[in-house]
Amino acid sequence: MTRVCHFCSEVTDANLEYSDFSLVFIGKMCVLDKKPPQQSEGFKQRVIRALLYCTGEMQHFHIHMQDKIFLLQLVEWCLRGTSQVILVNNPLSGALILGALLLESPWLALLGILGLLASTFTAVILGQDCEEMYTQIEEISSGHYGFNGMLVALLIGAFSSAGNWYWWLLLPACLGGATTTFLSSGLATILDRWDLPVSVFPFNTIILLYLACTGTSNPYFPNTPALPPGAPESTNLTQLHVPQLLQGAVLGVGQIFACQTVGPSLLILVAVLIFSPILTVYAIFGSVIGIVAGLSVSVQQGFLYSGLAGFNGALGCMTVGAHFIFNWRTHLLSIASAFLSSYSDIALGNLLGFVGLPPSSWASTLTGTLMLLLTGKNLRGYRIPIEQVTSPEMNLHPCFQWSEANTDVADV
Length: 412
Hints:
Blueprint (H helix, E strand, L loop, with lengths): L1 E3 L6 E3 L6 H34 L5 H7 L4 H15 L6 H14 L1 H21 L6 H9 L5 H12 L11 H22 L9 H14 L27 H13 L7 H14 L1 H20 L4 H5 L5 H13 L4 H25 L9 H11 L4 H4 L18 H13 L1
Antiparallel strand pairs: 1-2
Helix pairs in contact: 3-4, 3-5, 4-5, 4-11, 5-7, 5-8, 7-8, 7-9, 8-9, 10-11, 10-12, 10-14, 11-12, 12-14, 12-15, 14-15, 14-16, 15-16
């Protein structure tokens, strides 16, 4: 014999000898147990889903934008290109970085956007007759052809001695941004054979050529000469200001975008955090290592406080973090990359500073490329193929898959 609970519509066995009061109590408990937890879990799930939607590469958003008009797609491409400067592929991060640039200097932000558009449009034009059309479009939509142009335009404005809103700079910003696309396309055919990224080789090449061609006394494009980081005389390390050193670690990340104030630098760190917390730790850690390297060779204190001592270390550390599975071996490799990038930057700065040229990010670019060329068995197994690089958190689980794939490629 069975009885029905009128509150939850569940059938109860009469042999259990529940009274009518018991059935009412059971029915009330069913109501309390079912409805409120469902509502609470649904709200929490929606919040978590919304937060997770904005992290990583936002592939759902990318798929959603594929059937939109070209202008909206172009906005997404440019936002991803902005974030690719700091090894991030996230449109929301790109929007935050653009906000940081506007907060730092609207003039530099305008030049950066102009260079980004010039390089992206040039890639679209060059890719129309490409045999591998789908691959080309995917690279453009991911921002791989935009970030070099943005960096060139930013540094053209940062090194100009003509001040803000000097409209002559729009011409070299556009031409320099477009030229980076030609170099990126040409270098890709060579570096792809070793599964290496083009990185910022085009940016470093174009900005160095531009500054060397124009010089400091050019009537149309005058530039501020770069100074060597080495201290002109022995520095008393006891006079160091520790809070400014800590501030310099944050500014080291902002200096990647030529930002010299704390607010925009923190906003850039938030942009990296949205994409990957692990990559954020690498950025801060590498910047701190750059400051330690600068202290060890007694560079100018202004070089430490402004973040110029840390940004190559941050980039070198992040390059290893983005292209290797996270473990203790690759963590030690990232530390070595940060130190080598920082010392190389100081050495190149002292050499090029005699002719008034900056070392730019040559140190971290060359060091990161060398790290990716390492052939040690214990490291090669954790190397992520270039076409499968994403946020470090997404690559924590398939470690053994990468290891097996790389072993098969090496055997072939």
